[in-house]
Specification:
- The chain is of the alpha+beta class.
- It folds into 2 domains: 115 residues, no CATH class; 64 residues, Nucleic acid-binding proteins (OB fold (Dihydrolipoamide Acetyltransferase, E2P), Beta Barrel), CATH 2.40.50.140.
- Helices cover 42% and strands 21% of the residues.
- The chain has a 5-stranded mixed barrel with strand order 3-4-5-7-6. A two-stranded antiparallel sheet has the order 1-2.
- The N and C termini lie far apart (83 Å).
Length: 189
Amino acid sequence: MLSNLWESITQTGQTTVFISIGLLGFIYLAVSALFGGLGHDGDGGHDASAGDGHDGDTTVSIFSFKVIAIFLVGFGGIGAIMSHNGFSSAASVSGGLCSGVVFGLVGWSMLRAMYRQQSNSAIDTNNAVGQLGQVTVGIPQDGIGEVGVTVQGSYSTFSARTESGQPISFGRRVKVKSNAGGQLVVEAV
């Protein structure tokens, strides 16, 4: 029934349908590029997933809206060209599907390569444990101060306190003993 309906649509009508499908994908990609992803690609918050968020292996789903939009551009564009040049409906749809899959796979590969190039500047305060640092804001008795420590190759300052509650003055060298919820526990060295 659907094949009879599709065959009854004129060649120009078929070309218009293909162009519309291709434009739908193109418009999504253009708006996404201009405005940053239309809701983070609609797949639960992120186009890229890093597994559990700790292994750094960033991937892009093959079913990402961006990949689907690239598929639609390939399908609609090649389908329209084939339909306009007199190919049968079946050939136009087949050509569109094949090129859409190729476009989608190439786009997916390119997106994966780009996402893998992204870096994360978040510093894990657990990596500060055992490091030496310096008090940048004096730690008062039973209070909170600040220490500067080089972590993951970058110098950063963190809130800090002493385990014993004893004060440590500005400029003193300290060793990070533990991490208590993002606040470093230090001792003077």
